[in-house]
Amino acid sequence: MTTKRKLIKIYTPKEERGFLGQGHTARSLLMGNFSETDPFIALMDDMLDKKDNSPAGGPHPHAGFETVSLLVDGKITEMLESMKKGDFQIMTAGSGIVHTETINQPTKGRLFQLWLNLPKKNRWTTPRLQILPSEHTPVSEQNGINLRMYSGSLDGLSSPIQNYVPLILAEITMNSGAATTLKIPANFNTFLVAINGTVEVGEDKKLLTKDQVGWLNHFDDDSQSDLILKAGEEGVRLVLYAAKPLGEEIVSHGPFIADHSDEIQKLYQEYRTGKMKHISKSPVSQRITY
To answer: Is residue 192, in this structure, part of any structural domain at all?
Structure first.
């Protein structure tokens, strides 16, 4: 008998002023302890409406995890790493890398950026950047449902992205009343982010609405489970995140993730002494565009 998934936690994250200042609103989409969200460390919903030409942001380091970025709407024009709607990037910070997020012109866009844990055995792997442009993203459209596959496999679609942690990330747009049943490993920690519209989730038809985050129940076995979705009258657009928990403790401080606190100090020292390279100066083999 196939396991059925259902919503067990629903909340609406609060908007706050973002670190880029004027024109930047941010929402933290993950709530709860890391033991509950494993392997998801953090997820920010950054809404930008910058109207001037003054520089905002700048270069900064990361190590010990991966940043997983999806531009939901608009266009973000940065000095080095611009993105348009539907573009997707995974930067494996690994042993340590510097990247630049400097916006120095009017920009309007909405970005989901996830911090995804790395397994201990891959914590200090060689950094790399994977770019999946919108126009090369696997897409299916049938029965009033549009599915864009950014990472992993779902409903017959597979992304070319290479993963250290099994990660399913898809954007799903459903017309009014459209319904589907998606197969997801039962032991994957899974949540949905509703961008707009409404959707009934599971056999008990719990409602998820615009700007809400909904977490599903999950199980210990690796069999397939059913996720039943039915769009409301106005349709729905949502992003699905699902990944296998690692069950490994982490230490987090600033831009770094590690296994022990002394490793954090070492990373700060490496950054301050210029030992961390900028991703733009990495070999071509470490910068993959699909």
So the answer is: yes
